[in-house]
Design brief:
single chain; mainly alpha; 2 strands
């Protein structure tokens, strides 16, 4: 998404009407965007701003910073409504004033103190008569006090890790997670915490592994120094907000221009689709619409006029290219990619080169008929627009009918060497396997099969040709199966 649109959407998703609303993940995201320049300059996370009355006062006193942040959010939040911007600005000031007063009151009642590791078990425990929201504020205010005076993102991460990694697998680590996630959203900080890999593909693979927790701390790069710590959290930590940030990073990487693999275009396409499948869940697309669109753009770029021949095997004949293109289209993740392949197949099937490629293929006529049937079946399985599907299928049916007529197939089959049963089974199996297509062709084929089966020696020759190791009953059951498959039983 365009950065400005993303920012505006963030504000609209976080319309706060009460002080408690400010602590939600969406609201903190909006605060990070509205006051981003100020927060970056003083190395503060939205979480720290919300849990320190001193930080809030400093923010309010920083010239027009608060006013600009409030107006930016208010304008986006009332867009498309009948609410005046001035009214939304007034309401936001009202809530932020209450936020400050509540924080000040809580700090005066129990001043948060800087933590040391030995204090963590007592600090995270729920006190008698304390609500979960009161507990959360108390713990996060203490963490904010602990980070006070540390004006370096990396040192803040290290402090949080050292304090909390012993409880990383517990839900209580979620309080630490919120701070870590917001630190990771600072520009380029992820590179300084867990490093940068040479290619977009390697980075995407790692981000997916970190998100899944499918990493080993021992496999972390030696530099930067905190990479092993971050891998440890990714493997065992309760870090839902950090995992969400990893998905945001994944979206950026997927929307970059770097290749995902070092292989050929087919390998690249398979990797794009594998990631798409991995991110598609019953609850929606992981990473959201931007991530999905990034993958769809990658697929579409691999299916251009410049790459299609390379993607489909270079020098293989046009018949095989059509079949491969249909197989690739069936798994398309983008409308643009599917549309391109639909047009590609339609244009090639209608050309004389395709007809010549099929009729000139090496192998028996049955194999050529089978190939046309295979392409026909793949076309039907592709969920193409009806008009395009009808056009391709009709062309394939006409080509097969022409192939049969030019070879006088059914008449010449009668004069072939071999038993009556053997010749009948050729036709029966062609029908049963779906090799023969088109109403007229199937009608002629069924008549040919019936004519062979009516001959007096059909059954006798069938039993004589059968595998001697089979019982007579098994042979007859096999014949019945083949006839049913062909719709001739």
């Amino acid at each position: 998404m365009d950065p400005q649109k993303a920012e505006a959407q963030s504000f609209k998703d976080a319309v706060c009407e009460d002080v408690s609303d400010f602590y939600s993940r969406k609201s903190r995201d909006a605060i990070g965007r509205a006051a981003g320049r100020y927060l970056q300059s003083v190395r503060l996370t939205p979480m720290e701003l919300l849990h320190s009355s001193r930080h809030q006062r400093a923010f309010s006193d920083a010239g027009t910073t608060l006013m600009q942040a409030v107006q930016k959010a208010a304008i986006a939040q009332v867009k498309g409504t009948n609410i005046p911007v001035s009214e939304r600005v007034r309401r936001l000031y009202e809530i932020t004033d209450s936020l400050y007063k509540e924080a000040l009151e809580k700090h005066e009642k129990e001043p948060p103190e800087k933590l040391v590791k030995s204090m963590i078990p007592d600090v995270i425990a729920l006190r008698d008569g304390e609500s979960p929201s009161e507990q959360a504020f108390r713990i996060r205010a203490a963490l904010t006090a602990t980070l006070d005076g540390i004006n370096d993102w990396i040192k803040k991460f290290e402090t949080l890790y050292e304090l909390g990694h012993d409880i990383a697998g517990l839900e209580a680590f979620g309080h630490f997670d919120s701070f870590i996630a917001e630190i990771l959203r600072a520009p380029n900080i992820s590179k300084e915490i867990f490093g940068e890999l040479p290619t977009a593909g390697e980075e995407i693979d790692r981000l997916l592994a970190l998100y899944d927790g499918d990493v080993e701390p021992s496999h972390a790069p030696g530099k930067p120094a905190n990479a092993k710590k971050f891998y440890t959290l990714a493997k065992t930590g309760y870090i839902p907000e950090t995992r969400d940030v990893l998905l945001r990073m994944l979206t950026l990487a997927l929307n970059s221009s770097g290749r995902l693999t070092r292989g050929d275009l087919r390998t690249e396409l398979e990797r794009v689709r594998a990631i798409f499948k991995r991110l598609s869940t019953p609850n929606g697309f992981l990473g959201g619409e931007d991530c999905e669109i990034g993958l769809q753009k990658r697929e579409a770029s691999l299916l251009s006029d410049e790459t299609i021949d390379l993607l489909l095997g270079g020098r293989i004949d046009v018949g095989e290219k059509v079949y491969l293109a249909l197989q690739i289209r069936k798994q398309a993740i983008s409308e643009r990619g599917a549309d391109y392949l639909s047009k590609y197949v339609t244009s090639i099937v209608g050309q004389p080169d395709f007809s010549r490629a099929v009729s000139g293929k090496e192998g028996s006529i049955e194999e050529k008929l089978g190939f046309l049937g295979k392409v026909h079946k793949e076309t039907k399985a592709n969920n193409l627009p009806p008009r395009i599907e009808d056009r391709i299928c009709r062309t394939l049916e006409e080509l097969q009918e022409e192939l049969l007529e030019n070879n006088d197939y059914f008449k010449k089959l009668e004069t072939r060497p071999g038993s009556t049963a053997k010749k009948a089974l050729i036709v029966i199996d062609l029908i049963g396997e779906g090799s023969l297509i088109g109403a007229a062709t199937l009608k002629t084929a069924r008549k040919s099969a019936h004519d062979f089966m009516k001959k007096a020696d059909f059954l006798e020759s069938y039993l004589a040709d059968s595998d001697a190791t089979q019982s007579k009953r098994a042979r007859m059951q096999d014949l019945e199966r083949r006839l049913k498959s062909a719709g001739l039983a």
